[in-house]
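Protocol step 4 of 6: structure prediction from sequence.
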Amino acid sequence: MNRLEREFGDEIEFFVLNVDLVEARRYMDAYAIRSRSTYVLLDGAGEEVMRWSGPLDESLVAAELANFLENGE
């Protein structure tokens, strides 16, 4: 994830959610996050665009983020 943040950090805001904290519960509920290693891409209105769970293939996600930035999809 650090590589993705370095590559796309000027265009995409990255947040880390600590699922062990009580304060995180409202975000976990709002975005149906049930486990660690869950990644959610939200558009500017806070709507979910994409979701990944489990081990992250950074090359695949980088391609999807680039496509989203270029095409909005």
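Step 5 (inspection) to follow. The longest strand covers residues 48-53.
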